[in-house]
Write a structure and sequence with these properties.
mainly alpha; Arc Repressor Mutant, subunit A; 2 domains; disordered N terminus
Length: 211
């Protein structure tokens, strides 16, 4: 029994090593240039072993997305917990004031590469859409709890707007704009949250793109 558990642990460790090798290939050659042969060489394994662990290149991409996103889970959970506690300012600071930037910088271009792949590959696109939909839905749930007077659609729109603002803010940071622009993003996020209290900016038509 113990030997079986050791084999499972080794398999998980080997999967993580392969995914880190895949990430290294993307940093060096981009996603399109990271062939199964290139990844196997970087990981020091055979191509058949890649197939054994991941099934296909699509499976490898999906596993890499999950692997990268695991680094964000704790911070996202903390953000949602902060929002559940009613402290929207701390949430905004984490999402737009630098917390996400530090995590994105650690991943050194992996997400832009995955986004680029998603523009051409339906499978990768579906994975990322699910990721952002989950983030939006978690935010919307907590916004509805904090703002019971707001409708579910309003909370979902504001949550979607925050997700878009986070993504756009990180994209603009890559252009090395002045730090004060991050403050502008926080102010905009604060206005979006305030609209749930005041009822301002409450369109009666239109739906979030992440249905």
């Amino acid at each position: 029994m113990e030997g079986s558990r050791d084999r499972r642990d080794l398999s998980a460790e080997r999967r993580a090593e392969i995914l880190e090798a895949f990430a290294s290939c993307i940093r060096a050659d981009g996603l399109a240039g990271s062939s199964m042969r290139r990844i196997a060489a970087e990981a020091g394994v055979s191509q058949p072993l890649l197939v054994h662990h991941f099934g296909s290149r699509a499976g490898l991409v999906e596993a890499l997305v999950a692997h990268v996103l695991a680094r964000y889970d704790a911070a996202l959970d903390d953000a949602i917990e902060t929002l559940a506690g009613g402290d929207e300012e701390v949430l905004l600071d984490l999402l737009l004031g630098g917390g996400f930037t530090a995590m994105v910088e650690r991943d050194d271009g992996l997400f832009p590469a995955l986004h680029d792949a998603a523009s051409r590959d339906e499978h990768t696109r579906a994975i990322l859409v699910d990721v952002y939909r989950g983030f939006r839905d978690d935010l919307a749930t907590q916004l509805a709890r904090l703002h019971p007077q707001a409708s579910a659609d309003e909370c979902r729109r504001v949550a979607y707007g925050l997700v878009c603002l986070v993504e756009g803010n990180e994209l603009m940071r890559e252009l090395r704009l002045p730090d004060r622009r991050a403050g502008d993003a926080v102010a905009l996020g604060r206005s979006m949250l305030r609209s749930l209290t005041t009822g301002a900016g409450n369109p009666t038509t239109g739906r979030s793109a992440l249905r």
